[in-house]
DNA sequence: GTTGGCACTCGGTAGCATCGAGTGCCAGAT
DNA sequence: ATCTGGCACTCGATGCTACCGAGTGCCAAC
């Protein structure tokens, strides 16, 4: 596609632009390491690169900045980047010291990633639908208020406050719980909708009432994945753009957890590990780039870590950080 | 303290400055409703107000802007403000339709508040220490990995993944659970540290091992309140200040959940419902103001709702919003 | 005590010249 | 045939000046 020289000129432009955020001129490129030709030659090549859509000029007589296509080419040409010593050390010690519940750890991981990359970071946990119910419990909070608690095989918990119209005996609750337990254990929680209430000649019993109240609660408000998303370092985006409007719209996106999950899933589904500008599929992220990596627990892919920054982000750094953190996070979760 | 006329001039200045974010001059004040004197008189009074520290000038020959003291006076002089019709309607319909778990509802509440006030909103849940354990459960995830689950009387759940060195029999887990249950039910979870392991002549049993592993887990990483804080609408702060640095530092604060809880608690403890600038006790919030209101469940104060915005926020609006939302939230939580 | 008038201040904006980083192109060197 | 140095040109950024106008403080008159 691009000959060797064009490629290295493009690389030099992207690298300098990432550092300075200023349009880069032929002079700078000519001085860049790895460039042995004069600025005039660089100019010719840059004009060609512009014609092919890799670079653009903010205005005549300014330097060039990479287009989306330019970043894409740059990223595709990157060979597996590795993390610098001190960053790698930081990651290691983070996971050595990590403690607390999974949720806490995932949240802390976003902070780690954000710190490593000076961008916003996102960690998405495993989708809830895949986890299997391990135990079911009904705990009475007040006479007519019951808490449904399901412990899932992966250590997460689903709970629901259930409002019963009437007060139900302890015995009724116990029998309801064992009925639910029987039907749900080993199944994903969505199996709840299949639990039928037995129809008795004498009309609905206490137990039926309990079971159908639980079923109803999950029907009205089904599980969504929004509380399995953790976002950190959003404040880093403030200085990423100079247009306040851009900043605001990006932050607004990050506040919508469901949107964030969808975004990450979507990018992963397309088999990308970097989505640049419009590749994210979200108009407000036109000027952003997203770098993602999956993490696996016991060989199974359960979640995603990602970094969101300006399109002119430090891709090598971000790619390395995401890869390493994803790997280490997976290991950490696998071991316990 | 301030005579009638000075007070109304101060009020006029604050109100206009809140609207326009521009220094306000004597001319505008003279034209404000409720002001019957000429601009010259206003000038004299404003000079006096400046002398007394209620107003300040960004530079000679500019209008005045309120100082912290000025805002304070303004707020103190406010009589219980009420919410406008459409906002009140919005709050009502929000709580009528609210569903899902408490956590979800609190998170949504921050969005409601943020929407009402165009500021960032914070909701703090009840401190975890006060809740009493209702049931205790140990669920085995893998042979040597156990999940400790405590359902609390207020419907919240504490869980902990416990790494046992060795694999423990189902029976051992059950007996451990009932031991823990016996010791903890009716107590706050901190009582865990008091659970002693019986010392047997034959050395520690399986049960002792389980119990002490649980105790150890909570000793290493004690409960903190950070996951009982919900922040919403942080993106609103982007346009609140024109100094990017200010925005960043404020957002950074909002990202630190523990800091936010402490901040709110601290303000409430001082008996304030508005903290302006340095009254917040946090240097980065110098230019902000915080408006808070408690909410009660069954007559007991369990949490706080708050709004964080620029010092020139719309206080009447914010005060009314937090009051109404706090009230309604309390009611909603009391009923189920 | 209040007010209109007045001189003064000073940030903001518009106009203008200048500067310089950058470009495209061409003619000569390799 | 390709690269390079040179050159004329472009155009945003910077700095200067003039000016406008919102606002002030003060004073004399009502």
What's the arrangement of secondary structure elements?
2 copies of one chain form a homodimer.
Chain A: H1 4-20, H2 26-31, H3 39-51, E1 55-56, E2 65-66, H4 68-77, H5 85-97, H6 102-117, E3 120-124, E4 133-142, E5 145-152, E6 157-163, H7 170-184, H8 206-220, E7 229-232, H9 244-255, H10 257-269, E8 274-276, E9 288-297, E10 300-310, H11 315-335
Antiparallel strand pairs in A: 1-2, 3-7, 3-10, 4-5, 5-6, 8-9, 9-10
The first copy, chain A, binds a DNA duplex (30 and 30 nucleotides) through helix 3.
Describe the structure.
2 copies of one chain form a homodimer. Chain A contains 11 helices and 10 strands. The first copy, chain A, has 336 residues and is of the alpha+beta class. Chain A folds into 3 domains: 4-77, Winged helix-like DNA-binding domain superfamily/Winged helix DNA-binding domain (Arc Repressor Mutant, subunit A); 85-127 and 226-335, 2-Layer Sandwich (Beta-Lactamase), CATH 3.30.450; 129-220, Enolase-like, domain 1 (2-Layer Sandwich). In chain A, strands 7-3-10-9-8 form a 5-stranded antiparallel β-sheet, sandwiched between helices. In chain A, strands 4-5-6 form a 3-stranded antiparallel β-sheet. In chain A, a hairpin with a 2-residue loop joins strand 9 (288-297) and strand 10. In chain A, helix 5 runs parallel beside helix 11 (315-335) and helix 7 (170-184) packs across helix 8. The longest helix of chain A is centred in the last third of the chain and has 21 residues, at 315-335. The two termini of chain A are 47 Å apart. Chain A binds a DNA duplex (30 and 30 nucleotides) through residues 23, 25-27, 37-41, 43-44, 46-47, 57-63.
């Amino acid at each position: 596609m691009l000959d060797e020289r064009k490629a290295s000129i493009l690389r030099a432009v992207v690298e300098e632009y990432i550092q300075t955020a200023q349009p880069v001129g032929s002079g700078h490129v000519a001085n860049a390491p790895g460039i042995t030709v004069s600025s005039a030659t660089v100019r010719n090549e840059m004009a060609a690169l512009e014609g092919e859509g890799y670079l653009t000029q903010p205005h005549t007589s300014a330097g060039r900045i990479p287009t989306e296509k330019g970043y894409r080419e740059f990223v595709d040409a990157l060979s597996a980047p590795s993390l610098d010593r001190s960053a790698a050390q930081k990651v290691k010690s983070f996971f050595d010291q990590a403690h607390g519940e999974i949720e806490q750890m995932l949240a802390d991981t976003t902070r780690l990633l954000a710190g490593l990359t000076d961008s916003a970071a996102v960690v998405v946990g495993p989708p809830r639908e895949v986890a299997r119910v391990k135990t079911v419990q009904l705990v009475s909070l007040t006479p007519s208020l019951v808490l449904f608690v399901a412990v899932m095989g992966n250590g997460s918990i689903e709970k629901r406050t259930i409002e019963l119209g009437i007060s139900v005996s302890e015995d009724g609750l116990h029998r309801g719980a064992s009925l639910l337990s029987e039907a749900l254990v080993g199944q994903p929680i969505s199996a709840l909708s299949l639990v039928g209430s037995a129809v008795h000649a004498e009309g609905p019993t206490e137990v039926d009432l309990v079971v159908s109240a639980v079923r109803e609660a999950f029907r009205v408000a089904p599980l969504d994945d929004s509380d399995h998303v953790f976002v950190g370092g959003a404040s880093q985006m403030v200085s990423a753009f100079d247009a306040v409007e851009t900043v605001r719209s990006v932050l607004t996106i990050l506040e919508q957890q469901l949107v964030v999950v969808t975004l990450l899933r979507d990018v992963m589904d397309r088999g990308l590990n970097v989505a640049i500008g419009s590749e994210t599929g979200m108009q407000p992220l036109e000027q952003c780039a997203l770098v993602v990596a999956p993490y696996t627990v016991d060989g199974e892919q359960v979640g995603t870590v990602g970094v969101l920054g300006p399109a002119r982000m430090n891709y090598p750094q971000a790619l390395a950080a995401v890869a390493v953190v994803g790997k280490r996070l997976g290991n950490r979760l696998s071991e316990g």
